[in-house]
C-alpha cells in the first residue's frame, strides 16, 4: 500500500512539474532559514556551556545608588576576593580576582603581537576547566608564570616547545610559559582570552587602586567564583549582599552597595540591568529570530497547502474511485500525508545544501563561527523530527480537505469546489503577506533607528581622527618629539593624550563638590584625563570659557566640564568656579558641548576633563586633511616604531569605532532584511503558482472574453484584482500589528526615531508592486494566448 502511495505521489510529481518545483523550492528555502536560525539559537543558548563547572560558576557584581538611580556593575574593589574567602570560604570552591580582558603586547625575540589576555588568580584555571596541552594549570601559582592558548603558542613559537620560554608583556614584565591550554570556544565569555598571567604579578606591579588609603573605595577589578557542591546560589548571594557595605567608611557608604552573584547562565543572554533589576538582554533576539524562523517556515507550508487544495478538482476523481473501491477516509488521509512527507524530505535534503551555502554569509553577519554538525547523530534525529513536524503542518489541511470529497458526486462529474472553497486559501495568502509586510516594516524601522542614531551630533570632529592604545611609556616620554617629526612630515596637524578614547569613558567617580551643592545629591561623573592639546586634536566645541592653554601655568589644576555636568551643578556661570574632587581643588576654565562618548541611544552622561601631563594610554591623532589618509599612515607608522620599537603601531579610526556601537542593531537589521527578502520570495512563489492555476482554470473564460472584445489590460486587471484585494487586507492587518510592536521596541531607546507614515506606505507599495509583478507574468501570458486554442473543443 505504501509503495502504491509513493508511486502515485511520484506520478503527480512528474505530471505537475511547475507546482512540484514551487512546492519543493518554497519548502526547502523555508526549512533552510529554520535550520540557520536553529543553529544560531543553539549557539546562543549553549554560550559558555562548554565549561565543565558551568552550573556553579558566577560573577560577583554590585548594585550602587545615587540621586535616585541604581546602576549595576561588574567592577569591584581589590580586597573583595580575600574577604569572600575569609567570611564565606565554605560556600565557595574557588574564588578568583581578575583584571579586565584587555590588549597587551606580547614579545618573544623578534616576534611582537597584540593579544587579549587577563591576569587571574590560580583558581581560575580550575574554574574554567582549561584543557592543558602541555604544562599544568598550577603554572599560575608561579608569580612569573603564564598560561597561553594553543593559537598564541603557534603565533609566537611556531612548532617549537613553548614551555619555559620567556615572554615580555608590554615591554615591561618578563614571564615564562608554564602551560599551554586548548583555545577556548568562540561562543564563550573567554573566547578571545589568548593568555592568562599571574594575578600576583599584576598587583605587585600595579601602582594605583588597591594601594590607596582605603582599598575599598575604587572599583577596578573583576571577581569570579565557583560555588561549593552543597551551596545554593540564591542563598549565598543573599549572604554576601552587605560584604562591601560593612567594609567601606561611612562617608563612602553613600552609594549603598549591594553585592550579588550573577550566574554564568545569565552572563550572555541576561546581561542588561535597569535600575537594579535584571531586565534581560540578548534573550530578546533569541525569541525574535525564533518567531521569524517559525513564520518563514509557515509561509512555505502555506504555499504547499494552497497549491495542493487549489488543484483539488484534479484529484477529485482519484478520491472518488478510491472511496468507491473501499478506501477509508483514514487511508486517504494517510496517502496525502505520505505525499506531503515525500515533498518535505526532498525539501529537507535541499535545505541542508542551501544552509551550507549560506552559512559563510550568515556567520559573517551574525559574528559567529557555526558549522553544520554533519557527523552528529543528534543533528540527524532533530532533522528527521523537524521534517516530520513540517510535513504534518504542510500536509494537514490538504489531507483532511481532499479526503472529505463525496465519492458519488466526484464520479458523476457533479463535483464543484463551491464558491466558499477558496476562502481558506485566501486567508492563508493574507497571512503570508501580513507576515511579509510586518518583516518589511520591521527592517525599515531597525535601519532607520540605526541611521537616526548615527547622524546624531557627536560634539567633536570624527573625520581624520585616529586613536591608538599605548601599552608602554615610550610614546608618552617622547610625545613632543613625535609631534614635531609628524608635523614636519606633513602627516598630522595635532596629537594628544587622554586616559580614555573619544568613543568611551573608561572611568567614573563621585565626590565632586562645588559652591551651593545640594548635600542630598552625589556629584558623580565620567572622568577623562586630557593633555593640553586634547581639545584641539579631537575638535571639541567650547561653549563657554576657554580651552587648556600653555599661556596659563595654573592649568595644571584646571578642569573643563561638559554641558551636562554644568547643568547638573545648577551654576549659572560655572567658568571660574572651584570644583573640589578628592583632596584637590580644580578651577573650571571652560564648558564644552556634550560629546557623545558612550551609547548613541542614551543621553550624554556628565563628564569632566582634568588637565594632566600624565594622561597616557590613548594617543589621539588628527591627520592632515591635505594629505591622503593612506599616505599619512605610512608616514606616522615608522615614526611611532622608531620611538616605541617594542609595540606594533595599531590604530583605529574614531568614526569606525563609533560605527561599531551599532553592531548588534546592524546585525539584527541585516538578518531581518535577509529573512524578509526570503519571506517575500516564498510568498511570491505561492502567488506565482496560484496565478498559474487561476489562469489555467479560467482559460476558456479568457478566450470567450477575448472573442467578445476584451483588451489585454482588461484581462490583466481581471486576473490581478483578487490578489490586489488580498494584499490590501494584509496591509490592514500588518500595519497596526507592526506599529504596536515596533513602537514598543523603540521605547527602549532614549534617543529614538519615530514611526513615520511613509514607512507603512513604502511597505504597502512595495508589497503591492511585488504582487503585481509576480501575478502579471501569468496574467499577461493568459491574456495574450490565442482564444482559438482554448475554444476549439467547445
Question: What does this molecule look like?
Answer:
- With 794 residues, the protein is an alpha+beta fold.
- The chain is 48% helix and 18% strand.
- It contains 24 helices and 26 strands.
- Helix 2 (17-45) crosses helix 10 (329-366) and helix 20 (663-697) packs parallel to helix 23 (757-784).
Sheet having the most strands: 8 strands, mixed
- Using the CA coordinates, give the radius of gyration: 34 Å
Distance, first to last CA: 40 Å
Instruction: State the shape.
Output: elongated
The counted number of beta strands is: 26
In short:
48% of the residues lie in helices and 18% in strands.
Keywords summarizing the entry:
794 residues; 26 strands; elongated
